[in-house]
Here is the input.
Amino acid sequence: MKTTMLLIVALLWALPVAAEPLPLSPSGVKTLSPEGAIKPTGPWSLGTRAGDYIYIAGMRGIDPKTDLQVQGDEPRIRQAFANMKLIAESEGATLRDATRLVVYVSDMYRFRPIVNKIQEEFWGKGPYPPRTIIEVQRLNGDDICEVEGTFYAPVKK
Here is the structure.
């Protein structure tokens, strides 16, 4: 009996933790970690759902398959937007459901035109969500761009 119990405990301990959904907060906030998304590089979450809103952390141009920054300015910025889009879509939101974007760039003159071009690729002719773009001295991993978003996606009842 004792050996069987130890075996069960060992098997349960060895099961992948990612297969279990993350617990909700006491107020019902859901932490997001969808299949195919990047992995957080520290003590932060990719996003959360609080009621009808989805809040997505700053996404960088990291390839989720390799966990490395994508090479090239345009491809890296495109990947940052794609990473944000994947998380929003995992909760039923579309890019048209964005209520606010914040973009951080390490060089406004160099990267703002690329951000505008990539955003037009993703949103087409618009309408576009409200956006703030800010030049910062440095981003994590000496990256060039980071984009975060808030999306409205009513919970299906």
Confidence is low (pLDDT under 50) at residues 4-19. Residues 61 and 79 are 5 Å apart (CA to CA). The radius of gyration is 19 Å.
